[in-house]
Amino acid sequence: MAGLPGPTGDDRISGEHAALRWVATLVARAVPPEEVFAAVTEEAGRLLHAGHATMVRFDPDGIRTVVGAWSSAGPTFPVGTRTRLGGRNVSTRVFQTGRPARIDDYTGASGPAAEDARKFGLRAAVGVPVSVEGRLWGIVAVGSRRAEPLPASTEHQLAGFTELAATAIANAQARVEVRGFAEEQAALRRVATLVARAAPPAHVLTAVAEEAGRLLDADYTTMVRYDLDEVRTVVGAWSSTGPTLPVGTWAKLGGRNVSTLVFQTGRAARVDDYASASGPIGELARELGFRAAVGVPVSVEGRLWGVMEVASRVGPLPAGTEARLAGFTELAATAIANAQARVEVRGFADEQAALRRVATLVARAAPPTQVLTAVTEEAGQLIGANYTMMARYDPDGVITVVAAWSSTGPTFPVGNRAKLGGRNVPTLVSQTHRPARIDDSAAASGPAADAGRELGFRAAVGVPVIVEGRLWGAMTVASRAGPLPAGTEAQLAGFTELAATAIANAQARVEVRGFAVEQAALRRVATLVARAAPPPEVLAAVAEEAGRLLHADYAMMIRYGPDDAVSVVATWNSSGPAYPVGSRWSLGERNIQTMVFQTGRPARIDDYTGAWGPVAEAVRVFEFRAAVGVPVIVEGRLWGAMTVASRAGPLPAGTEAQLAGFTELAATAIANADAQEALTASRARIVATADATRRRIERNLHDGAQQRLVCLALDLRAAEAAAPPGTGVEVQQLEPIATGLDDVLDELREIARGLHPAILTEGGLQPALKTVARRSAVPVRLDIQIEARLPEPVEIAAYYTVCEALTNATKHAHATAVEIEMAQREGVLHVRVRDDGRGGADFSHGSGLVGLKDRVEATGGHLRLHSPPGAGTTLEIDLPLTHTATRVP
Asked: Of the four, 394, 551, 597, 886, which is 20 to 30 A from 495 by CA?
């Protein structure tokens, strides 16, 4: 008996694994975090025989918040209790060091947390940090009312619970982030739809205020316009409860408040404590009960137009509120710009018939080519010019004709291009961004002047075409007779403004369509992420969606390896084959993948003839002219890069920003897969530890207590045989004792076989299952097609699945026959157990099936249950003979 472990140690090990297994089951079921927190505190407190157990979250404002609590008797810390950190206590020590801490005598502890602990009679405590994705999140602590310190192993035992709690928290945060992303995109999409339909500005601004307020869980949202006399006017408002400021309410700017700060800086601003705000607007905010506010500027065509504000009556708004508001302000600005353009069109239409005809085309959203052709003709006829031309400035220093008109004779063909330079009207306008004139073409020079002289021009006037604050092109009128009249520049200005409006509206429509297409692509990828699709499927979708959206010729997702190499994890090609997934190259020299790796930031190469290095050489076969790459950051770590490339030329400005949305979704999918893999590995370790414990107990029983009982039984039989004649009564008394010893020995053998059957270890599944079938109270038909021994975890999982199914068929289903089929095909063991009992089995009834499901999934397998009432029960499992968890290549 000396070699046997003490019952207290065995009970502790068994209890610890049972507690951890129960918590791991809750995590795997993705139950709400508060349910996991309650289970963690209760299981930890009971396991460690503590008086109290708590789980605490550390908040950014130096406060600890109780999220789970348990007491062996009497009251405990209420969930939601908030206490300021500080002093000498376990919570503050863990917060300051990020490491486990203990206090063996709380009489010397201090701070609010210590005072709370003493209220509940705690004498000693131990706390272990909970870290989520590399960041200190909180603490799990146990406390004791006894005078002696908690055992030295307490920190180690608590660590298993904190790992499971961290997994539950990380999974919950990932789900919240995916839901938040989908809600934000839906809100933006609803507003974008109103903008695309040219809804009235008041309607759009009210919708913007409401959508932003609901999305950000704010108490109040306002859209404000800045007026010329430094007054702000409410143009849209929403409140979660109670009244709002009526549209049209105005207040003078000044003092310290969000509206004034944005007006002064032209940038986003926040006030986290409105008690310190000042000025008329600050007073108004306090009357409405605001505690904090954030404002983001609304800029229309390059000019500060107003501000969008969200406010809270509770406290500071979350970090990132400014960025989330920005999407709404951009849509509001588009609606305002479109409305202003329509007002200008109506105003010009009242002034002159020519402008009215052009304005009508603009108002009808006619194609830009039709509007620009009408502009050139109307302007030429109005001014009495011989020639009118509308030309666009291109990035390569070239001017391109987009519309032309002539009173007689030929004109420059549309699409004709000329190099800027010399002294001529188009070049002067491009240099100064102001109107220009040349009254004698003899003094002009450059390609544009040479082309004009060929058409007989004597003089010309040009006016810039400004679209949303940027020089887009120029409108030129020319005469064969002599200088054009004074005032020609002013007359042309009305036409160029209409032309700019038509161009801006066309660009806005293209941008809105592009926005909708982009959101649809992101939504499709986000749906895959939300469904927990395998990372290879998500990454392939990211590459294809990004490539199509950006009109790229090629898209590729790569992963950085520890050996300064990159491997391809997803590719897409608009035509022809792409590099196969799994291809590897070394980093180095000048190429997109190396530049992103070295800086951790987006990178672009507009001329790939200057790229070199192994990656550049490998992709040169695709004849790329330019490429853009964006880093993929997973949990704060540079994981890889997303690249799009073009065979035509440089990719548009803004490509990096558009790619970022896809890389964030890819990073979410990768992080979710990593978390799932870690959870599966954790469950596998728990199952393996439990099996090892079973084997050790079985071995100890066999080698210790069982052998000792055999020896005692033999000694008793020997004493019975050696009894001298005349002692019949005494010998008869020995007989029942010997029989009882034999019975106890048989029971002990049955217990040992139930813990871990030796025949399974020695002979494998086939003889072990034959023994189980022979002992079964229900007739069993076995069909086992296994050629050789299987991996130990697979054999154990299959064995216990069959045993549990037979037990259920006998005890609960009242079956009269059971069929067991087992076969090995294509690297997978398939097991099927079917009975003819009453059915109705359910995972929610009892822990046996749940335990089997956990064991099967811990090996990477799958379990299926089909048990309609009255039609028997079928249990099927598939166990991979080589574990292949879903991983990113």
From this structure: 394
Tokens of 441: 């073409």
Instruction: State the pairing for strand pair 101-103/82-84.
Output: unpaired
Instruction: Give how far the C-alpha of residue 10 lies from the chain's centroid of Cα atoms, to the nearest Å.
Output: 43
Can you give the three-state secondary structure of 504-533, one letter per residue?
HHHHHHHHHHHHHHHHHHHHHHHHHHHCCC
**Structure letter (DSSP) for residue 256:** S
The pLDDT tens digits of the residues spanning 721-766 come to 666 766 665 666 666 676 666 666 655 655 555 545 666 777 788 8
Tell me, letter by letter, the H, E, C secondary structure of 30-82. Answer: CCCHHHHHHHHHHHHHHHCCCCEEEEEEECCCCEEEEEEEEECCCCCCCCCCE
What is the C-alpha to C-alpha distance for residues 806 and 802, in angstroms, rounded to an integer? 6
Q: Which of 43, 41, 37 is CA-nearest to residue 22?
A: 43
Integer Cα distance of 608 and 624 in angstroms = 7
Q: How far is C-alpha 677 from the chain's CA centre? A: 17
Do 392 and 414 touch, CB atoms closer than 8 A? Answer: no
Task: State the residue for tokens 């604050």.
Answer: 469
Task: Scan for tokens 């040219």, then name that residue.
Answer: 198
Residues whose CB is less than 8 angstroms from the CB of residue 826 and which lie 6 or more positions away in sequence, other chains included: none
Contact 554, 572 (CB under 8 A): yes
User: Distance between CA atoms of 670 and 632, rounded to whole angstroms?
Assistant: 10
Q: Fill in the amino acid letter for 276.
A: S
| C-alpha atoms less than 13 angstroms from C-alpha of 201 in its C-beta half-sphere | 19
Least confident segment among 71-80, 488-497, 849-858: 849-858
> Helix 848-858 to helix 792-811 angle, to the nearest 10 degrees?
160
pLDDT on residue 402: 84
The pTM is what? 0.33
Region for 273 from its dihedrals, namely left if φ exceeds 0, alpha if ψ lies in -120 to 50, beta otherwise: beta
The residue assigned the tokens 């069959």 is: 802
710 φ, ψ to 5°? -60, -45
Two tokens, residue 593: 């993948």
Angle of the 112-119 helix axis to the 90-97 helix axis, nearest 10: 140
- Give CA–CA dist 860/368, Å, rounded: 60
Angstrom distances, CA of residue 734 to CA of 137, 553, 739, 852:
67, 94, 9, 46
The helix or strand, by DSSP H or E, that contains position 768, with its residue range, turns out to be helix 765-775
- Residues constituting the chain: 889
Q: What is the three-class DSSP state of 16?
A: helix
Q: What DSSP designation does 150 have? A: P
Task: Return d(Cα 116, Cα 143) in angstroms, integer.
Answer: 12
Tokens representing 600 are 């951790």
Alpha helices of 722-764 — where are they, by DSSP H?
728-755, 758-763
Spatial contact of 623 and 648, defined as CB atoms under 8 Å apart? no
CA angle (282 as vertex; 280, 286 as ends), nearest 5: 115
Residue 633 and residue 233: Cα distance in Å, rounded? 42
620-662 pLDDT per residue, tens: 777 888 889 999 888 888 989 989 888 887 888 778 888 887 8
Phi, psi of 415 (to 5 degrees): 100, -10
709: which DSSP letter? H
- Do the Cβ atoms of 670 and 663 come closer than 8 Å? no
Interacting residues of 835 by C-beta distance below 8 A, sequence separation 6+: 778, 805, 808, 809, 813, 815, 817, 818, 819, 872, 873
Q: By the 8 A CB rule, do 361 and 370 touch?
A: yes
User: Which of 532-536, 701-705, 726-730 tops mean pLDDT?
Assistant: 532-536
C-alpha–C-alpha distance, residues 125 and 163, integer Å? 20
Helices (H) and strands (E) in the chain, counts: 24, 29
CB-based contacts of 504, cutoff 8 Å, min separation 6: 301, 337, 341, 467, 468
Q: Is pLDDT above 80 for 322? A: yes
The percent of residues above 90 in pLDDT, for the chain, comes to 12
